[in-house]
Amino acid sequence: MFAIPGIVALIILIYARPQEFVERLQAVPLLYVFFALALFGWLIDVRVKNTHLSITPQLPWVALFFVWASASAMIQAKGDAFEQIMGLGICVALFVLIAHGVQSFRGLHVVAATVLSMVLLVCGIGVHQGFAASGCVLIDESDPHDTSSGRADGRPCTTPRECYLGDAEPGGEYRCERIGLFGTTSIGGGRVRYRGVLQDPNELALAGAVGLPLAFAFDQAERRSLARKMLSVLTLALVLLCAVLTGSRGGQLVFLIVLAAYFSKRVGVVGYLIGGVLALPLLVLGGRGGDASSSTLERLDCWAEALSMWRDHPLLGVGLGQFGEYHYKTAHNSYLLALAELGLPGMLLFGAIVYLSVKIPVAAIRHIERSRTHNPSPGERVVRAWATGLIAAFAGLTVGIFFLSFTYHYVLWIYLGLCGAFYGALRRHDPTFRVTLHGRDLVAIALINLGVIVCAHLIVRWMVS
């Protein structure tokens, strides 16, 4: 497939961010170059009939979501509407290219292997950073919205005070942090992180945890081998250790949920016990200690602000990308962020996209179980492995984004695309497989979103009172 190289390049660019530590790459608009490469490859695939023009179940809802969000931006955001629309447009384009440019299990393996390799890369760098020596970091004060990014000046330290002595930059703000590979630095006195879209330790932990089922899927999709088993063990160890070193409670919770979901699907209820045992070291070692309560109160304050914005702007919300104009922090909840910025219709559309992405692998397992007695499929092992892996990944994602603003995050939209690619590959293998939203699904989506609103409201009131 000619679209695969461009898609692979996009995933590497999004996760690894090479342009941030290779100065020569900063002069090249790599994001748009790789998008153009993937699109051109997809057009060639369509022309030579490697790929068929088809619509994944999520696409109509993604299109409606984009139109509604764009309308809210143009009406509410006004001046910077184009910038906000372009940001969401990149997410949508990323989804469309992965979901519709990959229509075979071989192509899915290549793209998923790229995501897994990037997870191993960023988690490996996080683990290295967690055990690296500390050094003085001069904070970059050019961006008022980012008070944590900076560069190491080469001086070792044990306390922040030491960084203001000797050859300190006059008037500069310093922190004493661990210095990792590629110029990465920790935050908050040692919480590991990466760059770009994964510079938040919580987001790094989430990205690592939801990548873990991909390693399990590779192990289960083909005949067992020592290499695949070692890959699973390596991924498990790196992701777990990285989650501990990030100090992210949400990331640790997602890790536990991913393990429980995966093993429960494999071996039933006993899987929850297996997942709990495997996650026990993380739960014991993880956590942030003293600042956990202040972080919780800060998050609840953001939830309260999100609900308040929605009450004031129930239909259109405050506008795409405008949460920061009303509050100094982000919503710390993807569902409430959609509600606050896009109103109730926007939240429902976002919920429908996530719901369909979960329904695809669930329906795939039910489909192969129904057809097994009549016409056993030689590819059943592959289908089951990837369906189980995607279910586990989305079990973690749906919970993890409850505590993070992931509504327009590239990592989420990559996984939405992977579900679409899985659907296309299975449809190519078995054209009788279809997934649609029925009336009961729409009711379920509405009830789930209502439950999120009510739950957030009750938690805020209970914690504040």
Defining key terms:
465 residues, mainly alpha, 3-stranded antiparallel β-sheet
Number of helices: 15
Low-confidence segments: none
Portion of residues in beta strands equals: under 5%
Derived structural class: mainly alpha
DSSP helix fraction: 55-70%
Helix and strand element order: HHHHHEEEHHHHHHHHHH
| Overall mean pLDDT | 88
Distance between the termini: 58 Å
Q: Taking Cα atoms only, what radius of gyration do you get, to the nearest Å? A: 22 Å
Count of DSSP strands? 3
Concise structural overview:
It is built from 15 helices and 3 strands. It has helices at about 5-15, 30-45, 60-75, 80-100, 105-130, 200-220, 225-245, 250-265, 270-285, 290-310, 325, 335-370, 380-400, 410-430, 440-465, and strands at about 135-140, 150-155, 175-180. α1 packs parallel to α5.
